[in-house]
């Protein structure tokens, strides 16, 4: 058995976990990170191609503001959102972008070399999302992992935490197993941060990596924490249908695509004529399902994603990793439409916390 001691144990090696570890370390806590896989090679963040929603005077579009970002988020959530937490998100996200840059992350710039390139995503009224090609998540992890190395924060890789330990009602540590050797690993600590991702693998169609199995929810419940909003799972509209080995895998970015049913109809004109494919992801996914149920779906049970209207070379430039995937699968996005369907993407549920990110369980 291996035994470690620290002030704070972070369970999870993705962006939430690494940023939590960084925050604790710069506040003089001794920190360790336990990750079920290899950091920068496992979890969901490394697969995230999109962008970070944030409004700041250094890059915002004319007319945009943090208040409008807040409104868009509340509207997108049909007023079910925890508005206190949404406000914190909108207020603090710009500083997180800048903190990532201070760590060494690169975000795409316009031709002047200074202005941030921005994307617009579903439900947003303005382009407000800094990004880097289609590897934004990978860039974030690279920067955070580098920052943690400089702070000498140990990364305990290939360790799956199986139980939070308590003493006299307070967190006292955690126990896990090595996924390589099967050995027991024990952590003595006064605080645990659970940031271990969702559970996309419970769905047949999922773009999540295989290590997202929802075990963090079991850890929290067993430790006495509450879970909330467990019914809210976001399905991204664009997942591959073929070949079977790629079924459910993230297939493209909606802001570079148009969607058509088997009749050649751009069906989002019917469901959200103003925003079209840039409607919220839940509305686009439900529209796809409706088209299939009413007999307008493709032979595989989906719809077609079309990028052929883009200028030659655009997809290869803006999404080089996805472009390489298309070519390797035998698709040329400049000439071919790709058959897609919704896929389990993001778990908007989890441990119930207050505005200080506390679960109410001491430690």
Architecture blueprint of SSEs:
Elements: E1 2-5, E2 8-11, H1 15-25, E3 31-35, H2 66-76, H3 83-103, E4 118-119, E5 129-130, H4 136-150, E6 155-157, E7 159-167, E8 170-178, E9 184-188, E10 191-194, H5 215-222, E11 227-228, E12 233-240, E13 258-260, H6 268-271, H7 281-293, E14 303-306, H8 314-318, H9 320-328, E15 338-347, E16 350-351
Parallel strand pairs: 1-9, 2-3, 2-10, 3-6
Antiparallel strand pairs: 4-5, 7-8, 8-9, 11-16, 12-15, 13-14, 14-15
Helix pairs in contact: 1-4, 2-3
Keywords for this entry:
alpha/beta; FAD/NAD(P)-binding domain; Flavocytochrome C3, Chain A, domain 1; 27% helix; globular; 363 residues; 4-stranded mixed beta sheet; single chain; 4-stranded parallel beta sheet; 9 helices; 3 domains
The chain-level structural class is alpha/beta
Largest sheet: 4 strands, mixed
CATH class of the largest domain: Alpha Beta
The side-by-side strand order for the widest beta sheet comes to 1-9-8-7
Distance between the termini: 24 Å
> Which residues sit in consecutive blocks of at least 5 with pLDDT less than 50?
none
Mean pLDDT: 96
Beta-strand percentage? 15-25%
Structural Rg:
21 Å
Helical run tally = 9
């Amino acid at each position: 058995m291996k035994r470690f001691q620290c002030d704070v144990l972070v369970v999870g090696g993705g962006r939430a976990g690494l940023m939590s570890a960084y925050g604790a370390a710069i506040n003089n806590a001794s920190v360790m990170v336990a990750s079920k896989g290899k950091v920068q090679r496992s979890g969901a963040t490394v697969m995230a191609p999109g962008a970070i929603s944030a409004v700041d005077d250094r890059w915002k579009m004319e007319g945009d503001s943090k208040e409008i970002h807040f409104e868009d988020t509340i509207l997108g959530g049909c007023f079910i959102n925890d508005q206190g937490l949404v406000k914190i998100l909108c207020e603090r996200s710009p500083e997180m972008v800048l903190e990532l840059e201070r760590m060494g992350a690169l975000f795409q710039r316009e031709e002047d070399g200074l202005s941030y390139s921005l994307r617009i995503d579903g439900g947003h009224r303005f382009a407000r999302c800094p990004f880097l090609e289609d590897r934004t998540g990978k860039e974030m992890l690279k920067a955070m992992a580098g920052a943690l190395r400089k702070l000498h924060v140990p990364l305990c890789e290939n360790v799956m935490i199986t139980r939070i330990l308590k003493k006299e009602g307070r967190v006292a540590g955690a126990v896990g197993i090595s996924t390589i050797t099967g050995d027991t690993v024990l952590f003595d600590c006064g605080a645990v941060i659970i940031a271990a991702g969702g559970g996309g693998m419970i769905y047949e169609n999922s773009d999540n990596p295989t290590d997202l199995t929802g075990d963090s929810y079991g850890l929290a419940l067993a430790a006495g924490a509450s879970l909330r909003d467990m019914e809210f799972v976001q399905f991204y509209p664009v997942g591959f249908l073929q070949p079977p080995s790629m079924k459910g895998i993230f297939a493209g970015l909606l802001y570079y695509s148009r969607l058509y049913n088997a009749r050649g109809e751009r069906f989002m004109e019917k469901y959200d004529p103003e925003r079209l494919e840039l409607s919220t992801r839940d509305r686009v996914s439900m529209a796809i399902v409706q088209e299939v149920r009413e007999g307008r779906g493709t032979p595989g049970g989906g719809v077609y994603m079309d990028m052929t209207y883009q200028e030659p070379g655009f997809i290869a430039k803006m999404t080089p990793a996805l472009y390489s995937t298309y070519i390797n699968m035998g698709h040329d996005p400049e000439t071919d439409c790709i058959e897609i369907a919704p896929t389990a993407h993001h778990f908007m549920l989890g441990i119930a916390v207050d505005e200080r990110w506390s679960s109410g369980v001491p430690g």
